Amino acid sequence: MRRHILVCHLPLIILLSSSLSSSCRSDHQIQIQALVQFKASLIDPLDNLQSWTTNATTSPCSYLGVQCDPVTGTVTEISLASMNLSGRISPAIGALAALTRLDLGDNTISGGVPPELSNCTQLQFLNLSCNGLTGELPNLSAKLAALDTLDVANNYLSGRFPAWVGNLSGLVILAVGENSYDRGETPPSIGNLKKLTHLYLSSCYLTGEIPESIFGLTALRTLDMSKNYLTGGIPAAIGNLCELWSIQLYSNNLTGELPPELGKLTGLRELDVSGNKLSGEIPASLAVLRNFEVIHLQWNNLSGPIPAAWGELRFLKRFAVYENNFSGEFPANFGRFSPLYGIDISENAFSGPFPRYLCHGKNLQYLLTIGNSFSGELPEEYSACHHLVIFRVHGNTLTGNLPAWVWGQQSAEIIDVSNNGFTGRISPAISKAQRLKELWLHNNRLDGEIPREIGRLWRLKKLYLSNNSFSGVIPPEIGNLSKLTELTLGGNMLTGWL
């Protein structure tokens, strides 16, 4: 009897097996068809997608950039970033229902974002950034509840800001900036994204004040609302974001003072509030922060001294406070313990001796102190500074002989020591500065002959030597500088012609 039962059910087993096999083949064909249509809408000049064929023996899992579930064989990932692709995103992408990752970033794909993407209900990672996408971003929030990364930054998307992103409660990374949305206020609904660690809303044409709801995102590490039209002050509630390590609020219309509550952000590495209308002094609470790598405060109305404690920073790489009203002596130890790469403190009212240790880490490439009141001589410590690209100390009251290290900068593109009281002569070592494009020496007390070696600086475009005490014959080699567009020699005791 048992044998009879088994025999009776055998056709059913065969039928089920046949049905499942047919279903798998059907899913396989759907995936291939969707991928081939997706490929057909793209332009692939480097032939990166040549493996995407309709060959019956080829699995889509073998396609370049495609990953599949190892058990079911369904397509779960498409990663085609930085492959020089153009064309458009085919609506056929919506047929890949099991897709969890789609990365098309850093190509030149154009056209709109297909609303069919919302059919990929398992999608967790969506990167369409750095393309040429246009039109309004379709509402994807209804079906993409699993999404944790949404990056459509650096496109040409237009229309209303996608306020619906506030419904994607699982988002960890949200980057919708650098697009061409209509002007409007920041949606308070972004405050619903409690898991958010990185928020990029740069250049979104946002107006009004920063909504308080954003300061409830306590997991936030990066806050970037730069290059908008934000007004009002930086709220004290920013101190609630204890995990923040990067604040990017530059190029807005923010007013008021820097809130002391910033001092609560002990992990803060990057602070850029440049290009606003901020005023007042740097809060004492900021002086205790020890992890700064980048401080950009330029183009504001800030005043008072630079905190002396910032001279003890050990990770600082870039420091810019130019065009403010800072005053007093610059911190004596500034740069002594940090790997400074660039510093610009121009157009303030700093006084006292020239900072001694800015190049102590031997990484300095950009040093600008234009338009201050530094006095005395340039410190000899800079003789170990071999990587300067831009060196500008124009418009101070510096004196003494220009040291030898100034002339032999092999990486220098601009040397500007004009409008000071420097003495001495131009060293023939200037010939080592083969990358030099601009040499500003005017309005000093330099003397002696102009060395012929200047004629070897074949990249030189600007040469300002006026109002010194140079004498002798103008070197004819200057006439060989084919790229020279500006030359001033007046106010000297030179003879000859070019």
TrEMBL record:
UniProt main location, coarse: membrane
The record's Gene Ontology cellular component field reads:
membrane
- SMART domains linked: LRR_TYP
Q: What class of enzyme is it?
A: transferase
Signal peptide positions (record):
1-26
- Which UniProt keywords are listed? Kinase, Leucine-rich repeat, Membrane, Repeat, Serine/threonine-protein kinase, Signal, Transferase, Transmembrane, Transmembrane helix
**All copies of domain Disease resistance R13L4/SHOC-2-like LRR, residue ranges:** 90-225
| Domain of life where this protein originates | Eukaryota
| EC code(s) of this entry | 2.7.11.1
Q: Which reaction does it catalyse?
A: L-threonyl-[protein] + ATP = O-phospho-L-threonyl-[protein] + ADP + H(+); L-seryl-[protein] + ATP = O-phospho-L-seryl-[protein] + ADP + H(+)
Is the Membrane keyword given for this protein? yes
Q: Which membrane topology term applies here?
A: Single-pass membrane protein
Q: What is this protein called?
A: non-specific serine/threonine protein kinase
Organism of this sequence: Oryza rufipogon (Brownbeard rice)
